[in-house]
């Protein structure tokens, strides 16, 4: 009798232990699918089961949204993030991610952003961006207002925050398309967003050293024209790199220009911008190696 009782107790403990670990095993399996699997059907099934298992917790919904986004199902990702937003559980990053996905879908022609959605998110971003020092967030506002009456104001607001030349070039290019202003076109091209129309516009009616850069880009005696602007206090890293790559420039002068260009890139970032500084360093060090700089 004692042996039978011991076997019964052992069975109950074993079965109980199995039941206790089963939810953890299922959760791990679902999370693996959500993080790794590429099959849309498998991801959709895991997403539905995971939401139920995790009782719709915010972190669970975020993982589901990430999974849908990873496999390219932007509509399902937006719908999941919208659930967080409607419940008041969305973080700032959740809202920006939903906006980014909407912009991608609109860009692909797969959705139209209605006026109510546009206004709601515009008002939210205006509140959220007060005092925001991160350029990428302001660039998102510019993307959101593209083609709308608020676009020019958004560009100007972003220009007040964004200091890196590449970003400023994109903003001035967008501004030039709206204003048709020659100075905006000049500001765009000296920061590397060159196109023939803006270069010609700047060359025809711009002012100052930027005109020489525009004419150089148009093939009008580039070495002489670029050399003439090297001492400008407003010189950009793009123009210095352009000069270094111009045929006929001596190696020592090219190396000197590239080192100055890297210094300007560093000046336009803070010491906390580790990624941006590493990217700039890699880009210009590669150019220096190409020119044989010591």
Tell me about this structure.
The chain is an all-alpha fold. Helices cover 73% and strands 0% of the residues. The protein has 16 helices and no strands. It has helices at residues 2-36, 40-53, 58-70, 74-86, 92-107, 115-128, 135-145, 151-159, 165-179, 182-189, 196-205, 209-217, 222-227, 237-244, 251-267, 274-290. α4 packs antiparallel against α5, α5 packs across α7 (135-145) and α10 (182-189) crosses α11. The longest helix has 35 residues, at 2-36. It starts with a helix and ends with a helix.
What is the strand and helix layout of this fold?
Elements: H1 2-36, H2 40-53, H3 58-70, H4 74-86, H5 92-107, H6 115-128, H7 135-145, H8 151-159, H9 165-179, H10 182-189, H11 196-205, H12 209-217, H13 222-227, H14 237-244, H15 251-267, H16 274-290
Helix pairs in contact: 1-2, 1-3, 2-3, 3-4, 4-5, 5-7, 7-8, 8-9, 9-10, 10-11, 11-12, 14-15, 15-16
Q: Which properties best describe this structure?
A:
elongated; mainly alpha; 294 residues
Low-confidence stretches: 8-14
**How many strands, which pairing sense, and closed or not: the largest β-sheet?**
none
Number of beta-strand segments:
0
Please provide the ordered H/E string of secondary-structure elements: HHHHHHHHHHHHHHHH
Helix-residue proportion: over 70%
Share of residues in strands? under 5%
What does the radius of gyration come to?
A: 28 Å
What value does the average pLDDT take? Answer: 91
Structural class: mainly alpha
| Number of helical segments with 4 or more residues | 16
**What is the general shape?**
elongated
Ends distance: 89 Å
């Amino acid at each position: 009798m004692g042996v039978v009782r011991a076997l019964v107790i052992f069975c109950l403990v074993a079965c109980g232990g199995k039941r206790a670990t089963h939810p953890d095993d299922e959760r791990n399996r679902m999370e693996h699918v959500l993080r790794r699997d590429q099959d849309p059907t498998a991801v959709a099934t895991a997403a539905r089961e995971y939401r139920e298992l995790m009782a719709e917790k915010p972190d669970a919904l975020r993982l589901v949204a990430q999974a849908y986004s990873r496999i390219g199902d932007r509509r399902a990702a937006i719908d999941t993030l919208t659930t967080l937003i409607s419940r008041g559980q969305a973080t700032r990053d959740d809202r920006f991610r939903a906006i980014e996905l909407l912009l991608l879908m609109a860009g692909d022609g797969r959705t139209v952003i209605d006026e109510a959605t546009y206004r709601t998110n515009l008002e939210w971003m205006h509140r959220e961006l007060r005092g925001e020092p991160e350029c990428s967030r302001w660039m998102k506002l510019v993307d959101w207002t593209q083609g709308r009456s608020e676009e020019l104001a958004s560009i100007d607001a972003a220009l007040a925050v964004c200091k890196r030349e590449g970003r400023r070039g994109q903003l001035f290019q967008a501004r030039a398309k709206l204003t048709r202003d020659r100075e905006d076109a000049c500001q765009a091209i000296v920061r590397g967003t060159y196109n023939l129309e803006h270069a010609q516009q700047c060359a025809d009616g711009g002012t100052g050293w930027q005109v020489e850069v525009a004419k150089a880009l148009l093939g009008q005696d580039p070495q002489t024209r670029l050399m003439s602007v090297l001492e400008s206090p407003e010189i950009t890293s793009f123009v210095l790199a352009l000069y270094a790559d111009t045929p006929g420039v001596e190696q020592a002068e090219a190396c000197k220009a590239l080192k100055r260009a890297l210094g300007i890139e560093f000046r336009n970032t803070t010491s906390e911008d580790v990624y941006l500084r590493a990217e700039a360093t890699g880009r210009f060090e590669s150019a220096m190696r190409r020119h044989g700089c010591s």
